[in-house]
Amino acid sequence: MRTLLPFIRLFTFAKFPLILGLVLMILGLGSSMGLLTVSGWFLAATAIAGLGTLFNFFYPSASVRGLAIGRTVMRYFEKIVTHDATFRILSKLRVQVFEKIIPLSPAVLNRYRNSDLLNRLVSDVDTLDSLYLRLLAPFFTATFVIIAMTIGLSFVNIPLALSLGLFLLILLIIIPTVFYRLGQEFGEHLIQARATYRTQFLEFIQAQAELLLFNAEDKLKEKMSATEKTWQEDQAKEAKLSGFSTALVLFLNGLLISGMLWFASNADFGTDEYRKAYIALFTFAALAAFEIIMPLGAAFLHIGQVIAAAERVTEIIEQKPLVEFNGNEEFETKVRLISAKDLSFSYPGQETLVLKNLTLDLEQGKKIAILGKTGSGKSSLLQLLVRNYDANQGQLLLAEKPISAYSENTLRNQICFLTQRVHVFSDTLRQNLQFASADEISDEKMIEVLHQVGLSKLLEQEGKGLNLWLGDGGRPLSGGEQRRLGLARILLNNAPILLLDEPTEGLDRETERQILRLILQHAENKTLIMVTHRLSSIEQFDKICVIDNGRLIEEGDYNNLITKENGFFKRLIERV
């Protein structure tokens, strides 16, 4: 239950609507109970009065009509107010969760699948809407109404009123506790099964083309069916317990009505000629009182799922970022732009060092190519330069200051980074290009760059131009087209430092040379650091750094390295 406390504190963001909703809920429930109780007394009193006795039916009939109208009105506005407040809280919660997730990227979030993160952000947060609507508000409403009903009936008969109120309060404690315990056993399993199934389903949809291509669809379907069966078994268990809670409450309701009818018939209501009508008053009050208890069994049966969902959300938001941006230094261009001194690094949870005592100096305005085998540590160096991770040991300086001395905004404004995987947002072509810069980019500039990188046909596709919808993950685009879209973003960005990780991967030789020419032209007055396996136009770079097994083994310009006897770079060139 302690897991729920941070989420309960969110109620302070909608205090007035929540309090108003609680008041309306109390008034609505009180009106409903009062309607049945007064109606029972009114019918009994009318029957006793008969045709030959004076009986003032105006007040009770007006009360019945007023309570009926009041119940309808109160419940209508209660639904509006409570649901509006709940949605406000959930929106606030989603924003808070997202704000917590952003600093975790990518170092911590790599531990989770994207589909699992989506499930936690959407489904698990949605589950928490039960916290107020189905748990806290009904419980406090029931407590208040039971006390108010007991006080009201005490004016008629104190022993009967206290007995009824005490019995209901005992049930108010026992029923939620029992069904909370029962629901706790399978609530976590149900939430986990739901999350697993939705994760598998999302991945199945996203990989549909590949699964069909490699005839692997049936195997994943079987896996999903097994998960779905587990989920359905948990849902069936929940349905059975929910039915049992209803049956139990109805049984206790019958016992209470029978007992109240028995004791009320022997109670002393004074010498009033309508005292026998009070028997109906207490009996119908007992009948109406179970409208309070009825929803609590099923609601607290659900609390196990609420707690499990809260734990899954808490697991994400309580993660600590591996990199924290606490610096406030201003960036000043220096000749020695980037310096690495005895730099060593391993990814979280791994012991193997991907960079080992790396020492490197890169000058401002130069074009640097970083070569090496796959897994030699080239991309890891770029990850350190944008502070997706921090080094285990050694120093990494930017403009002769520790890279940790800069704020995140300062660092992001100075560096433009193209990763191996280009992310395409589910949006228009225009918006996917606009992400390249914080400043507004004109349509003319976008169109010019698209022509330069060879994506002219996208503008002609479906005749929509820049309004072409690219869809989730850029499904309509081939791998090469996604790479070109990433390069278009680079050309639209004005950062003084460009970091490119395999920018021409997947392109043919002619297109590669064309793209490299564009990149070098764009980086004429910038610092360019490019990781590559390809050796096309390598002679145009001012400096070539060769990394192998996490160590810098060679550096220099093309002419120096090509003449180095038995050099690693020379052997690479000779193989081509």
Shape verdict: elongated
Q: Order of strands across the widest beta sheet?
A: 6-7-8-3-9-10
| Strand-residue proportion | 5-15%
* Tally of DSSP β-strands: 10
Q: Roughly how many Å apart are the termini? A: 65 Å
Low-confidence stretches: none
Q: What is the radius of gyration?
A: 35 Å
Whole-number mean pLDDT:
84
Helix share bin: 55-70%
What string gives the helices and strands in order? HHHHHHHHHHEEEHEEHEHHHHEHEEEHH
- Summed up, the helix count is 19
Q: Which structural class do you get from the secondary structure elements?
A: alpha/beta
Q: Strand count, sense and closure of the main sheet? A: 6 strands, mixed
Task: Walk me through what this model shows.
The chain is of the alpha/beta class. Helix content is about 60%, strand content about 10%. The protein is built from 19 helices and 10 strands. The strands form 2 sheets. Strands 6-7-8-3-9-10 form a 6-stranded mixed β-sheet, with helices on both faces. A 4-stranded antiparallel β-sheet has the order 2-1-4-5, covered by helices on one side. Helix 17 (about 510-520) links the parallel strand 7 and strand 8 (about 525-530). The radius of gyration is 35 Å and the shape is elongated. The model has no long low-confidence stretch (mean pLDDT about 85).
